[in-house]
Amino acid sequence: MLEVNSVSKDYKEFKLRDITFDVREGEHFIILGPSGAGKTVLLEVIAGIIEPDSGRVYLNGEDVTDLPPEKRGLAYIPQNYALFPHMSVFDNIAFGLRLRKLPKAEVERKVREIAEVLDIGHLLGRKPKTLSGGESQRVAIARALVVEPPLILMDEPFANLDVQTRSRLINEMKRWRKELGFTALHVTHSFEEAVSLGDRVGVMLNGRLVQVGSVREVFSRPASEDVARFLGFENIIEGTANGRVLRANGVEIELPVEVHGRIRVGLRPEDIILSLEPLRSSARNEFKAVVDSVEELGPLVRVHLFVGGLHLRAFITRSSMLEMGIRPGKEVYASFKASALHVF
Amino acid sequence: MLEVNSVSKDYKEFKLRDITFDVREGEHFIILGPSGAGKTVLLEVIAGIIEPDSGRVYLNGEDVTDLPPEKRGLAYIPQNYALFPHMSVFDNIAFGLRLRKLPKAEVERKVREIAEVLDIGHLLGRKPKTLSGGESQRVAIARALVVEPPLILMDEPFANLDVQTRSRLINEMKRWRKELGFTALHVTHSFEEAVSLGDRVGVMLNGRLVQVGSVREVFSRPASEDVARFLGFENIIEGTANGRVLRANGVEIELPVEVHGRIRVGLRPEDIILSLEPLRSSARNEFKAVVDSVEELGPLVRVHLFVGGLHLRAFITRSSMLEMGIRPGKEVYASFKASALHVF
Amino acid sequence: DYTLYLFATIGSFLVVYIALPLVVIFLKQAADLRMLIKTLHDPLVIESLRNSLLTATATALIALLFGVPLGYVLARKEFPGKSLVQALVDVPIVIPHSVVGIMLLVTFSNAILDSYTGIIAAMLFVSAPFTINAARDGFLAVDEKLEQVARTLGASRLRAFSSIALPMAFPAIASGAIMTWARAISEVGAILIVAYYPKTAQVLVMEYFNNYGLRASRPISVILVAMSLAIFVLLR
Amino acid sequence: DYTLYLFATIGSFLVVYIALPLVVIFLKQAADLRMLIKTLHDPLVIESLRNSLLTATATALIALLFGVPLGYVLARKEFPGKSLVQALVDVPIVIPHSVVGIMLLVTFSNAILDSYTGIIAAMLFVSAPFTINAARDGFLAVDEKLEQVARTLGASRLRAFSSIALPMAFPAIASGAIMTWARAISEVGAILIVAYYPKTAQVLVMEYFNNYGLRASRPISVILVAMSLAIFVLLR
């Protein structure tokens, strides 16, 4: 129903490069990417707020690229919700209906109906600034859905919410979609949202849509090194494979499969185990390593290691760091299972 | 050499409450606490920038509480370094010496000497805004040390640096202290800095200095539940102990030691293992749990669980979350060793 | 802290210098209420006050009519020469007031000489920047996303402006209009050249001073100061 | 986007209204260079220009002397009545210029009448706010931490002010002083009341206009506009 055809755009520090994908009727399509990937720009191009430098946008087969936003009828929910602060919640939700010149009773009925579904009936008389984050998000969704748009565009809809509200809203979002049957295009950097809500996922990196597929497909078979890195394979090791052995910077690594020639493998930092004594388990790759630096990430610590000439990153918890006395210059043993290696 | 005696102060949203501690000659004393604990206010009280509401500050036995900063002679390095942007690096470092009316040749010699030690001799002609973060920090330290202060006060000295620079500077800081022999009071939220640099550590929470001791002492024997929580024991379970069994909200937990009566135990979220099937290992506490919500923290995920009426937090990696399909409502098994429990 | 006290002492000279004349003129007039009451019954004074109020109000309305759209364009649109336009808007502040009058006469000659139009023309030139800048800042403070969302909900650009941007920027625009009004009614130099007649209160102050001296011009001054201060308090 | 074009069209009225007189007066004068040259040799004109420049410069210096310490105190210190002082500083902007003259005469009477002191008094009252506000904003933009660190290194508060705060806020203070200078030289109404003599250029424009008409006053106007615009360009 929505077709984006090779859209490119340079906008401030963001770039879109040759974006092509489609959203099917009734689908919840998620565009997953780190912040700065250009996700918001893409949504605004689709909504008609930004004009693309090249490429076309089709809605139900019709070319809408040159139409202003008000002629497209796509509901857009920006990250900050953009509730109209000088209007009551009721007037916010009724805004689109009144523009459509619906009779007053009809407006009243539709607003109350959607407010019922979204469980915000008791908020209709309030001003937006008195609402909590979760309530604001519900109102923004109600305001968008009440005009029954063919497609609803959501920009990081759950990013500004606390963890409890967020989990609740993600669950309810599934119910609303069942009840109201809308189609959604939703951009986010959250893996959780992609897993919980996405029928299909597109991974966006540096302004390019690099992989589109079902959630499981994308997470288990990253199409490229960049996708793998974004999905958490922070260690990418390049070397020459000969059967089940990879030689990289003078280090010999056991592979999970037989390969030959120049290859790259990915390894998640959480799959590397650090110990002060060798673990002596036959199934593992085990190496002597020197700690280069450590990087605190809240309760987790990223340890940068050198195994010979190979730079590896490993995650350990802060308490293990303290217990093992890990600090720059310390010698440790790093080990990982061959099966943790992902061959591209 | 520095004695802080029951200092209290209300300043903006920060509060200091009855802070008492001392720093010994030649020591590197670290005050460790989360942001907002009032660490900067404490440093500024000691530097003479903020007047305390009550309490006294003694320097080498002399009461300096009512002296202005210029009469105390304590060097202060704020978090943003506060280099004078309109002066060259040389003039920045020479600032304190010139105020002391040293002869020009003497100023020149001392600046070049300290610049040599701190490896910034090649930067003397530059303006501060052309420096990298690490270079700025070295200049700030040089400017403070060149006047040979009895005590140097540092506010989060490594917080704004990238991980490599930070590790290098932490190591060099040890060398500088050996070469120049200064005494340092250093506030930070970083466990890494406390472990690497601290001779002694004071833990500061909500404006109170709640525990002072050697690093190992503080981390292995938190004095209170709050310190434990700050040090990463996110799960605090309250219940009635009877020998080696703790009953809490209807759940029975095996304890590492014999205790009796109403107690609290701490458990780090990284010590809880989640699995889809029971692990059946006799040494473990193992419970059926329901996922309440998940919270993404970069590569790590905090999972909120309910075990009966007990709310537990566990850390797992993002890839485990995806592999196990963990999402709100899912049933999992949570297990942890009795030895992971810390009885207060 | 001696330095700050020293600075406060030096600085208080200017504070006193501004406050003193305000206080003194009210006190002296309070000792001469008869003259104030007499002035309030002087038909020339009433007429001139009416003229001042009318022309200042007309000026503020004209500044609103043209300045609000201009402020909106400056807030929302990038275009070549924008910084020139921005600079031009601030130029009237630095031009001597008598010269403003000469410039306007040179440009519009008899069309504005000695008429209400002339008074308004002089006032508009010196005071319009306040409305333009206030409107621009007001619109800049309205998140453009709000208008964009209104448009995705079906509002035209004009409709999004009138239902979202305008009501939200209204307080800023109103305060700009009040500043414009106050600056307009404070103008003397340009009006003296362009339109000595019809007589405005601020010109009458000068005429009474020249013809009858300080005592005669003081009551009108007090009335004008009171008005200006009232407006100023309203603004804060 | 039709709405924005419509707004730009409406808004351009004010842009043209401000730009047109500036352009026209230069063009008309360019067609009458003889008169411009004659004016440049008129000793009265030279004398009045000298008076204007001298008094405006003196005003700017006085504003600096007292306004910089005041701005520093307003930027660094909380004290009861601070918001009243802040408001008071802005009051001169809204008071009619002729009334400013009356207020000053009522307060200082003969001490300022028809003297350089009077011209400067009038100029200072209306223009000092620019220096005070610019200094305050300039000092606010200097991180107080810099001064605090200077003090821990042994500098007294005064020394920290003079070696850190003052040099760093200098650009802001300088631009405030230039605005003060420009506002001072633009003043007419208050000067007409307080000090018709010694004659300033902005008053002479008015006198020539009254005595000899538009053609005679135009060249001085052009010179003053050129000066003001030069200052304005310098400021940006």
UniProtKB/TrEMBL annotation, chains A, B:
GO molecular function: ABC-type tungstate transporter activity; ATP binding; ATP hydrolysis activity
Topology within the bilayer: Peripheral membrane protein
A Gene Ontology cellular-component term: ATP-binding cassette (ABC) transporter complex, substrate-binding subunit-containing
GO biological process, one term: molybdate ion transport
Keyword match Transport: yes
Pfam families assigned to the protein according to its UniProt record, in alphabetical order: ABC_tran, TOBE
Domain Mop: 280-344
InterPro entries: AAA+_ATPase, ABC_transporter-like_ATP-bd, ABC_transporter-like_CS, ABC_transpr_MalK/UgpC-like, Mo/tungstate-bd_C_term_dom, Molybdate/tungstate_ABC-ATPase, Mop_domain, P-loop_NTPase
Catalytic activities: tungstate(in) + ATP + H2O = tungstate(out) + ADP + phosphate + H(+)
Localization per Swiss-Prot or TrEMBL: Cell membrane
Keywords: ATP-binding, Cell membrane, Membrane, Molybdenum, Nucleotide-binding, Translocase, Transport
Keyword Chloroplast applies: no
Chief location category: membrane
ABC transporter domain location: 2-231
Gene3D superfamilies: 2.40.50.100, P-loop containing nucleotide triphosphate hydrolases
Function, in words: Part of the ABC transporter complex WtpABC involved in molybdate/tungstate import. Responsible for energy coupling to the transport system.
Description of how the protein assembles with itself and partners: The complex is composed of two ATP-binding proteins (WtpC), two transmembrane proteins (WtpB) and a solute-binding protein (WtpA).
Family under the similarity heading: Belongs to the ABC transporter superfamily. Sulfate/tungstate importer (TC 3.A.1.6) family.
PANTHER family: MALTODEXTRIN IMPORT ATP-BINDING PROTEIN MSMX, TREHALOSE IMPORT ATP-BINDING PROTEIN SUGC
Name this polypeptide is given: Molybdate/tungstate import ATP-binding protein WtpC
Natural source organism: Thermococcus pacificus
